[in-house]
Amino acid sequence: MMVDAKDTAVLLFSYGTLQDKAVQIANFGRELAGRDDAIPGYSQSMVAIDDPAVVATSGKTHHPIVQPSPDPNDAVAGMVFEITAQELAAADAYEVSDYKRIAVTLKSGVQAWVYVRA
Predict the structure, then answer these.
(1) pTM above the 0.70 mark?
(2) What beta strand segments (E) does the chain contain?
(3) Tens of pLDDT along 11-30?
(4) Which domains does the chain have, with CATH numbers?
(5) 92, exposed or middle or buried, with CB in 10 Å at 0-12, 13-18, 19+?
(6) Cα(9)–Cα(83) distance, integer angstroms
């Protein structure tokens, strides 16, 4: 699905459950098409999810989370998706309190939103 011309396209980088088809359909009403990319200067760990709705949607009690790494050579692989502002709001509602959304420059050079450790 192409983003409607009247809707400004937003780039969202996902390294975790937002790459799952079931999570995408539950939050956006559609499967997203993305491309491989990475977030440089970050490392990944896992966080316990306490929100029962999020666990029900993802089927997982622990989700990956990223934080800045002291090693500039670190990078976390994932996918970058083109979504609408309305879909970004849906992603904000899905991400739990452990996460905050920030803008980053990906390895490809594009700028995208990503959820990192709060």
Answers:
(1) yes
(2) 10-14, 34-40, 42-48, 62-68, 75-83, 99-105, 111-117
(3) 999 999 999 999 999 999 99
(4) 10-117 (3.10.490.10)
(5) middle
(6) 6
